[in-house]
Amino acid sequence: MNVLIDGHRGRQIPCDDRGFLYGESVFETIAFGDGEAPLWPLHMARLARGGAQLRLPLPETEILARECRQLLPARGRFVVRITLSAGSGGRGYWPEENTRPRRVVSYRAWPDQIDQQRRCGLRLRLSTISLCTAEPLLGLKHGNRLAQVSAARECQDSGHDEAVLLDSAGQIMEAISSNLVLVLGDRLVTHPRPAVAGVGLDWLRAEAGMDFLPLALPVGRLSECSEVLVINSVAGVRPVIAIDQHRFPIGPICRHLQSLWNAQLI
Amino acid sequence: MNVLIDGHRGRQIPCDDRGFLYGESVFETIAFGDGEAPLWPLHMARLARGGAQLRLPLPETEILARECRQLLPARGRFVVRITLSAGSGGRGYWPEENTRPRRVVSYRAWPDQIDQQRRCGLRLRLSTISLCTAEPLLGLKHGNRLAQVSAARECQDSGHDEAVLLDSAGQIMEAISSNLVLVLGDRLVTHPRPAVAGVGLDWLRAEAGMDFLPLALPVGRLSECSEVLVINSVAGVRPVIAIDQHRFPIGPICRHLQSLWNAQLI
Fold this sequence. Notes:
Two copies of one chain form a homodimer.
Chain A: E1 2-5, E2 8-9, E3 12-14, H1 18-22, E4 25-33, H2 40-54, H3 61-71, E5 77-85, E6 102-109, H4 113-120, E7 122-131, H5 146-158, E8 162-167, E9 172-175, E10 179-184, E11 187-190, H6 199-206, E12 212-214, E13 227-232, E14 236-243, E15 246-247, H7 252-264
């Protein structure tokens, strides 16, 4: 593990870190190719939103960028994780009045399965885990991720690649580690209040001019979808070929979004 | 900080611990007096429920008991925290197939304010943070506690001791670190689906024979309550003297429950 903790090489944090005690943290998982992260500004924007909401003073993004350069090999694809936790201190749930956050920057190898999944697609299940749209920190990439971990364990049990998580009203909300996009007629539909506001979707919206219709669909309408996609900032655009008994083709929308992605991103 | 990590003195954990990355952990906060924890069996029962749900294999409770004895001074009151995290490993949200949990046992001084709060009561506010009753891990004391931390920060801002958190339907659910009990006529009312199933309430129910009516009350009915109490396993039974503009007396029910508590607990 190659890690910088508050700028120093190391791999240990104090066990009174509030990220460990309460999941009081925000993080970003960022794709790097040959030392460059094309989605960097969007990741930094989301980190800033989360930091502001959790009142974690953010380090200068230039410091974070420098630490990534310091850690990463010059060539190859890697996934960097930047975690900003609330650090040590406070009294139980009551945080320190002046939070001194702890930052952890680490990276790991590019996941083997991404390229193959981009080509051949993923098999999903409907998760028994639902997500709460009333959650006040909805949309932020914070450190409270037990819903996603539980849904991932279900997938391991049943041999699926990913899962569809519903909102409390039984509507299609999100995959475990990706936003879900449903192709319904000529519209690209995605949940209006995602659990994690996806940087990959942001880029397709802002830079590639794609128009997503914010709409929560009941799960019964899956059969009307001509394509289903999962999108996240690292794995990019991947086709969904099955959700339980429903089958979906790898269609022209998927291949179009992938060509936009591949032209500029990793 | 006096800490045992997997049985060894230390204060650092690896920064790839899944408790740190995702809040993938369960924990207990346990009152000890002169080396004894009267609520120990109830804490161990909740830890076992949480561990089973999160698939964290539990250490023998005798090991945990021995580690508490090893750490704690023989005399005085202390608060022990036992954390069981999912340890290192896995691939993003996807956990290790065979989780090897990490256990952290630590203690801190008895909180100064408890004795005074038991006598004189607490001032609460209505939190803007709501809790989700549809959460699949509801009732467990797991490491995803951003709602509680956010509500605690609100209290720091507004100068309140604690807060009332509502459920998604706007009904009275819980305090930040305690269950809430409302005295309505001759009934003791508490939410049927608490975010954390309280060990203090369990004891009052099972050992002291108290009968709690599981009922979710709309916040408008606060004005009908003759007393309001906050109860947790460490601070015991504390009277609530105000929730925003509502005032409550410290009444006979509070003093009765306190006398039951003080006769056998810490």
